[in-house]
Amino acid sequence: MRVLPFVFSLLLLSACASPLPEPDPQQAWVELYSTADTLLMADRLDGRRWPDGRYFQLSPGAHELQVRFRFEVQRGGLGSGSLSEPQPMICEIRLRHDDFVAGRRYRIEARQQLMKAQAWLYDEQRNVLVRGRVLRCGSAI
Fold first, then answer.
1. How are beta strands 105-113 and 28-33 bridged, if at all?
2. Is residue 8 domain-resident?
3. Could you tell me if 72 and 89 are in contact, meaning their C-beta atoms sit under 8 angstroms apart?
4. What tens digit of pLDDT does each residue of 65-94 get?
5. Which of 27, 31, 38, 125 has the fewest C-beta atoms under 10 angstroms from its C-beta?
6. For residues 114 and 4, which has the higher predicted lDDT (pLDDT)?
7. Domains in the chain: how many in total?
8. Could you tell me the pTM of the whole model?
9. Is residue 1 part of a domain?
10. Boundaries of domain holding 45
11. Contact 121, 97 (CB under 8 A)
């Protein structure tokens, strides 16, 4: 039953093994950030699958970005006095921004909030441009 997490880990490690491409100055670059105990991955750009989960690189203008945010929640039994095994959760989050600029770097940050998630798109000066909209969250099992 633990095969799926193992395969997921292998895919993640293989993605980390290849270097990131050089940012194209004619495009906007979006990096992703989450804490060490969570995982934030690029998923879709304008409704189409994005091939590399570590970043987005896109043309200037308006775009819709979708990310997947994976984290664990502790679910203890009422009155049991002990915590059960952590439950992995995955949330899909959409961020829309109308004015990506060529040559600029952006950053999406995500964090867990109980059994949900929050995400923001920042510019280079750490100004919040957009707050993400959580499309769905659910158990990863």
1. parallel
2. no
3. yes
4. 999 999 998 776 555 555 678 889 999 999
5. 125
6. 114
7. 1
8. 0.80
9. no
10. 20-76+84-139
11. yes
